[in-house]
Structures are given as structure tokens and as C-alpha cells.
Input
Amino acid sequence: MYVILVYDVKEKRVSKMLKLCRMYLCWIQNSVFEGEISESKLKELISKMKAIMDADEDSVILFSNKMSYNMNKQIIGKEKMSTENFL
Amino acid sequence: MYVILVYDVKEKRVSKMLKLCRMYLCWIQNSVFEGEISESKLKELISKMKAIMDADEDSVILFSNKMSYNMNKQIIGKEKMSTENFL
Output
């Protein structure tokens, strides 16, 4: 499935979250990732994120769509997207 | 159409961008917004964002989908979503 993931975590946990998310998805901006991921890999990612996060302070929003071709992406301004993807 | 908007702008322009985006979409986290918006209103928003942004430093990513029911949203951790929506 196609996933857009945005996180908002306290600074001290940012590097861990960044490293983790880059193992599963493609970093596109600041704290935003996207990519194709299987349901089982997504479950694995969520479980690992929960282990890092403080549920009282941190937040992750996951948008998912079974058909990525339904989503259009438009970038305005500077493209910060990484070409790395460790899917 | 259904839109997810994420911005990454220099600190001095954050409050202007936040104020602008909240007039069109629903704030859901940090620099992330979502909502239903007409194509003409979206064009208006993009034009106003471009007036605020520095294209060499700032970035906005817009994901859009004509059918919002195709998107699933899952929140992990603290829900920071606002109930305000000035659409």
C-alpha cells in the first residue's frame, strides 16, 4: 500500500525516528515520508515507532491508500526530497 | 478534492503560513494540514503561499486525491488535531 507518514516528536527522539522511518519509507521533507509498503512491514514499522515514541508527547499520522495512482503530488518551492529509499 | 499539505518554511515565515493554511484547510499536526477544497480555492491558496514563501529555502508538498474516501488516516500517539476548520 501507499503511505504518507508525518511525525511530530520531541527533539531528543527525532534522530531515532528519522533513522527508523528511512529504513521503511522515502524521506521527502522535514518529518514527512512516503512510499509503498506491505501491510506486514507497516505493522513492523508502527510497532518500532511505538517503542521510540512517548505517547503523551509525540504524534504520528499515517495516511494510507491501497492505490497510489490515486494520489497526485505537487511540490512548490525547494524540492528537499531524498533519492534514497531502503524499502 | 481532498488535500494533504505539508510545509517546511524558515521560522520567520511560519506564522504567516500557518495563518494562511488554516483559512483553507484543517490543521492536523505541526506543519501538516488536510481537508476538502475546491480546485479554484486550492489555486488561490497556492498563489498566496507563493507570495509568502522563499522558493530557495522553503518547500510545500501537496498531495491531492479526488476521492477522499480512498484515504485512511491513523493517528499513533498524541492527537494534536484541531477541530477548527475555516473551509
